[in-house]
Request: fold
Amino acid sequence: MSISLEDVYAELTAPGERFEVATEPVRGAPTRVYRNAPPQLRELLERSRRHGEVPYLVYEDERWSFDHTRRHVAGLAHVLRDRYGVGHGDRVAIAVRNYPEWVVAFWATVSIGAISVPLNGWWQGEELEYGLTDSGSTVLVADDQRLDRLGDRLGPLGLAGRTIAVRSELDLAGVDHYGDLVDPHGDLPDADVDPDDDATIFYTSGTTGFPKGVVGTHRNMTTNLWNLLISAGARQRMGRAAGAAPPDDGDRPDQNAILLTVPLFHATGCHSVMVPSMFTGQKVVMMYRWDAGRALELIERERITAFTGVPTMVKEIIEHDDFASRDTSSLRSVGAGGAPTPPGLVARIAELFPRANPGNGYGLTETSSISTMNGGDDYVRHPDSVGKPVPVVELRVVDDAGDDVQPGSPGELWIKGPNVVRGYWGKPEATAESFVDGGWFRSGDIARIDEEGFVYLVDRAKDIVIRGGENISTVEVEAAIHDHDDVMEVAVFGAPHDRLGEEVAAAVLPKPGRTLTPEAITGHLAGHLAAFKIPSRIWIVEQQLPRNAAGKIVKRDLREQLLGD
Ligand code: AMP
Reply:
């Protein structure tokens, strides 16, 4: 007998249930919230005592148990508070690759009511400086690569003597070493943290030139945890009701294990992998950098049960030469999200991982990771849908005037719920533009919802490129190209790319009498922009770019001219 997702959600969220939904005031507005979700992040740390000495973080040959990690978190929390005077609401930035210390820095900051500011690890010096200044961070935790890129900026940023280096081989003035400061033996310092206190500032590239700091609260994050748990629980229940055989657990160790394929400075890695694992006792296997061959090796070695990545990564895994020879039978879920999934991928996942549940989560940094989820049979039947909203999330599809469109028609997707953040750090105008009408967030994605409630993303209203899951503001790249003396006009747009989904493309018109080459442009950008933002296809054009009556460059026409699509 099959049973609908809506029915299962209704059962699981009923009064008295673990996932009970009730209406409570959040910052003054009545909001449908999970009544029993942990009130704040610190509680997840406290509750992790029950996981004791089992591994939480695996990095190369290191295994950090839950207890070991929590002791480091407590040690660093004391350092932040006692040595640097970090208090409630102060910002502590992280510029560290996916090392265990990233995780420690995050938990230590949020556990004392301060705000964690993860910076994009690919950013160059100027971009890192922007993030540090914009957030007003008063302490920086950094590794050598990023310290090197920051160069002599620490002094002017007020961070000399307030920077902690991790895994550092450098001896820099004004930089303390993690190992010299942190005593991993005590308990967390006391702190009073409210569910609606700010916890994080994650940078996201939108339609404006500079990345915006998305301010998330403790409730935003713990709501995402509950959203993930209820959608996984619902899938299991639906599978059982449909008579699916229980997973063959014969060869499976007790502990679930997830491969961390994506950076921790984005919502998927932090909100949907690292944070939930602290609660559920799942092992997080970290990678020095993404590499499909290495991922396959780790899936086999660590008996990985959950794989979550951008669609590109799933594709790379199944097309890798080692795929057939590696044992991937431990996988119980293979999920992709954060960017459009190529057609046919879901069927391939179902075929190649018969014991794993395929999944797709849709969301944004502003929705603290997931808003809708597709999975199991629903996903195989509707492979081009991002699924249905999780229980506390409400959706609207609206036209340019902000009115609901006819059911089934496309329009901008608006999202509301306790996982929706309160706005952008220090940017009241951008906040007012995106967060409207009592808590609705305008996603900038164009979607339609079918009669069964499945959501389909059909286009993007916002001018961004998503390259392998990494959002890029075209405005920012255009501004950087404009800085070149010989440039008259420029337009940056996404060109289809087989592996990455999209790549960054640019059309550049030189000033009269000047000559330009693609190499001159990329050479100019290197060092100013992170490598992932630098266009991999550049056309030097001889005529003005196509414009509309208002004089705005029409990128759709330009793409058609240059790419023929
Ligand atoms: P970010 O804030 O970096 O997480 O990027 C959010 C954007 O990524 C969304 O506005 C979508 O355009 C895109 N996106 C996120 N999840 C999906 C998905 N499952 N399928 C297609 N696009 C997605």
Summary: The pocket of adenosine monophosphate is lined by residues 204, 266-267, 337-340, 360-365, 386, 443-445, 457, 460, 466, 471 (CB under 6 Å).
